[in-house]
Amino acid sequence: MNNFDKARFGRYAKFDFTINRSFYRNLALVLLATIVGLVVILFMIRWLTFSIGVDQTTYNDLTTTAMFTVSVIMIAFHIMAGCTLHPLRNKQGRITNLTLPATNLEKYLWHLLICIGGCLAVAVVSVAVADLVNFALSALIFKSTDGVQSLFANVFYAIPDKMTYQLSFMDATMSADMNSQSFDPTYQPEPDSFLSNMMGATWAFALCLSLFEMGIYALGNALKYKFNIIITYVAMQFAGFIFAICFIIGSIIFSQHADSIDPITARNFIEHLYIYFYVLAALFAAGGIALFVWAYKLYTKAQLTNSWNK
User: Fold this and answer.
1) Res. 49 pLDDT band, cuts 50 70 90
2) Are the C-beta atoms of 107 and 100 separated by less than 8 Å?
3) Higher pLDDT residue, 149 or 214?
4) With b meaning 16 or more CB within 10 Å and e meaning fewer, what string describes 273-284?
5) How many whole angstroms separate alpha carbon 236 and alpha carbon 93?
6) Which of 22, 154, 183, 252 has the CB geometry, 3.0–4.6 Å to 66, for a possible disulfide?
7) In angstroms, rounded to a whole number, what is the distance separating the alpha carbons of residues 206 and 150?
8) Are 175 and 185 in contact (CB under 8 A)?
9) Whole-angstrom distance, CA of residue 272 vs CA of residue 201
10) Cα gap 192→196, rounded to integer Å
11) pTM over 0.70
């Protein structure tokens, strides 16, 4: 049965959180300590630049720190997606899970909520705490908080904004390299519309790609309850290697025919690049949802045992 009842869902959530509290708490503490520790270590590096008398804007720049922090958060999301069925890692856990008075849908939704939703909540809190730590260290070491950037703003806004800003100059760069009487080398896209379109497209692409990657790890967890993260990572690296080879071959073929590309067509492609980002985002979103649905079906059919989880 896949009907959903809030009261029953709440009882199951309370039971699971009580039984596996230490597991969830330990993972949350690891993520918090990793992010705060990373910020402290990178602060020491910025302290070194401060000690040699560089400009204030240099040692207050948190772009590098934010990029490392985002990488840590994404790794945490993948790990937690690979732990959605952690209570089923042994036979006793699978038997207990089968006997609990809740539907498969309620159980699986709770696992997704506590792992992925909980990871997001811990990540937000961890970045906020790390931001306060950085602010306190800046006031203590630099004797000033003037110009200190916000790590929270960098992580959740500035990085995709900077990516979009770089993409906004692709058209101008391409136009400078093209020699055609029908093409105006001074042409540049309207910055406001282009930037706003690319900002939304970049966010959509990043979020949907993350959903797709988490779906892969969730599927790996549904296929094998123990040691799935390592197996899934190896499989993803192999798939990435194959994709990289195909991309290199495609780039070589494209470069051989680059001279025959119409400059006007190329310019229109850059102007409407955000559309392709949205299309890719939609494909990744559909693929991610399909992977989670697939994982759920495996969960309903193989909770007790299968050839991988004896």
Assistant:
1) confident
2) yes
3) 214
4) bbeebbeebeeb
5) 28
6) 154
7) 21
8) yes
9) 11
10) 6
11) yes
Q: What does the DSSP assignment read for the chain?
A: -----HHHHHHHHHHHHHHTHHHHHHHHHHHHHHHHHHHHHHHHHHHHHHHTT--HHHHT--HHHHHHHHHHHHHHHHHHHTTTTGGGSSHHHHHHHHHSSS-HHHHHHHHHIIIIIHHHHHHHHHHHHHHHHHHHHHHHHSS--TTPPPHHHIIIIIHHHHHHHHHTTHHHHHHHT---TTS-TT----HHHHHHHHHHHHHHHHHHHHHHHHHHHHHHHHH-SSSHHHHHHHHHHHHHHHHHHHHHHHHHHHHHTGGGS-HHHHHHHHHTHHHHHHHHHHHHHHHHHHHHHHHHHHHHH-SS--TT--
pLDDT range class, residue 31, cuts 50, 70, 90: very high
Structure tokens at 51: 């000690």
Token readout for 249 is 């071959």
**Confidence (pLDDT) at 101:** 86
For 240-256, write each residue's pLDDT tens digit: 888 889 888 887 877 77
Q: What is the mean pLDDT of the chain?
A: 81
In the block, which residue shows the tokens 């840590």?
72
Q: Which residue has the tokens 């207050």?
A: 60
**Predicted local confidence at residue 172, as pLDDT:** 44
Q: Which residue has the higher pLDDT, 230 or 269?
A: 230
In the block, tokens 């290697």 appear at 241
- Band of pLDDT at residue 225, cut at 50, 70 and 90: confident
R_g of the chain computed on alpha carbons: 24
Residue 134 tokens, joined:
């950085």
- Per-residue pLDDT, 53: 67
The number of C-alpha atoms within 13 Å of 220 and in the hemisphere containing its C-beta is: 23
| Residue spans per domain, the chain | 6-301
